[in-house]
Give the backbone structure.
Amino acid sequence: KAGVTQTPRYLIKTRGQQVTLSCSPISGHRSVSWYQQTPGQGLQFLFEYFSETQRNKGNFPGRFSGRQFSNSRSEMNVSTLELGDSALYLCASSHGTGMDTQYFGPGTRLTVL
Amino acid sequence: DAKTTQPNSMESNEEEPVHLPCNHSTISGTDYIHWYRQLPSQGPEYVIHGLTSNVNNRMASLAIAEDRKSSTLILHRATLRDAAVYYCILRPIIQGAQKLVFGQGTRLTINP
């Protein structure tokens, strides 16, 4: 079956703009989690959505938000971009129950100028 | 979130076994030990997980210390494709909890 897909793969924005990233999970998966990866901080959990509800949230400012649609596809939005938001944004999907394996997408590389 | 400690980097030769250590002295009785790896320019991928007993799958083996304060991921015959950053992660047994807390991981280099 098809893996997790993320669009776009690369994005360049300027400070102050906003951006929306998209994640399509594996068919049948109801949970989508988002992570930020930077050289300095490593991989950090942003939030998780399950059945259209945010179920878990990491320690990121309110500029970072997300949502999930009825088909389990998820979007992540970052408003008022800062230089420090430059990162690889990864999403992962799973069934969302118990000790599920999480399947990661290839990520979206965001550069903020 | 319980913390894990791994060496920053390790190096090995192709077709030799690799033992990747992980310390987790503050592990609780309800924490599973998971390993993921991240190949260059890719998202992380699941490798293996266990609770108390040693585990084997087609990718690797996981050896867990009797007191569960440490574990070792074993790649039996490393190939160049195993060059990646390996992450040891503790996941609590909480129904539905999907959050993964990544440390810095071990960057594994495989020499031909």
About this structure: The CA atoms of residues 1 and 93 of chain A lie 13 Å apart. The mean pLDDT of chain A is 95.
